[in-house]
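User: Could you go from structure to sequence for me? I need the amino acid at each position, not a summary. Structure tokens:
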């Protein structure tokens, strides 16, 4: 089986199996060898690595991963792709394909079984309709993780890197920056995919921190505060936090904490960075 990383070989495989793309699964397959090489290189995949690939499609990136990694586990939701993957990956004995929805897979169990519980690498050209739940699920479920290197929509990659002052800054930026150091490692134009999506893409590497960069005593409350702020980003911090259904801080208490922090009473939460949200939480829950 030839490498799939070009349009001609991809079309051949699609024809051979009479495969039709399913929009609902975010199926846009990579057809550019340079981009594929770059993803594997930026992910730092070596013969020591256990790689989890989300959504192998017809196995394009999977082939590159199998060449570089010790072992690859690829989780694909679309059952029509499974016989194709058996064919395109038949040369590799270091890959396991699981036909399942990634959001239902016990990834921590997988890391225990395949990698003795040591941190794994996640590498994928993600289905864009579930980028956020996939990434948040990986961080919040406590899966032992080294890094996540993924193709995402360009705007989403930007959002993950942003700080206060940008319209793209929000709860996703803060969550990603709490758990990892994000770095956009490649910009990828629409013509590198088949079918061609109508948005530009980027590869982002999220290197997981061993310890978050800020110390917060009550994480759950901090995320509630952050959600309250960005659900109503034009409101003042006093109004958004006091009005949150899952929090019970009075306007007076919030104003007092803001005063302790040297903030003006009408400050908006969207101007806070992660360190300030952590400080605010630590003070208000003390
Ligand atoms: N890795 C291939 C490539 O780069 O050419 C395909 C990438 S394509 C953008 C996304 C893949 O994720 C598709 O194969 C799609 O069927 C699969 N997918 C979509 N939702 C999924 C889910 N919930 N769990 C696992 N795979 C999923």
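Assistant: Here is the amino acid at each position, in order:
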């Amino acid at each position: 089986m030839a490498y799939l990383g070009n349009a001609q070989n991809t079309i051949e495989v699609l024809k051979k199996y009479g495969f039709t793309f399913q929009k609902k699964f975010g199926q846009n397959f990579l057809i550019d060898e340079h981009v594929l090489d770059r993803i594997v290189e930026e992910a730092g995949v070596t013969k020591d690595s256990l790689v989890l690939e989300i959504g192998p499609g017809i196995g394009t990136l999977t082939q590159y991963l199998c060449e570089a990694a010790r072992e690859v586990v690829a989780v694909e939701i679309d059952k029509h792709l499974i016989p194709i993957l058996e064919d395109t990956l038949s040369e590799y004995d270091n890959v396991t394909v699981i036909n399942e929805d990634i959001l239902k897979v016990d990834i921590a169990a997988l890391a225990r079984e395949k990698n003795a519980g040591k941190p794994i690498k996640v590498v994928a050209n993600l289905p864009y309709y579930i980028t956020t739940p996939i990434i948040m699920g990986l961080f919040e479920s406590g899966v032992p993780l080294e890094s996540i290197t993924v193709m995402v929509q360009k705007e989403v990659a930007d959002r993950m890197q942003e700080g206060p002052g940008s319209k793209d800054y929000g709860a996703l930026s803060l969550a990603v920056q709490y758990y990892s150091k994000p770095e956009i490692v490649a910009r990828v134009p629409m013509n590198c995919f088949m079918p061609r999506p109508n948005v530009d893409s980027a590869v982002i590497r999220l290197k997981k921190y061993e310890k978050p960069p800020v110390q917060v005593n009550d994480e759950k409350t901090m995320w509630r505060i952050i959600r309250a702020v960005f659900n109503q980003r034009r409101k003042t911090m006093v109004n958004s936090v006091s009005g949150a259904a899952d929090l019970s801080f009075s306007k007076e208490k919030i104003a007092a904490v803001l005063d302790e922090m040297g903030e003006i009473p009408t400050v908006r939460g969207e101007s806070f960075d992660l360190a300030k949200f952590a400080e605010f939480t630590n003070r208000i829950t003390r």
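One structural detail worth keeping in mind: The pocket of S-adenosylmethionine is lined by residues 25-30, 54-57, 60-61, 75-78, 81, 101-103, 125, 127, 130 (CB under 6 Å).
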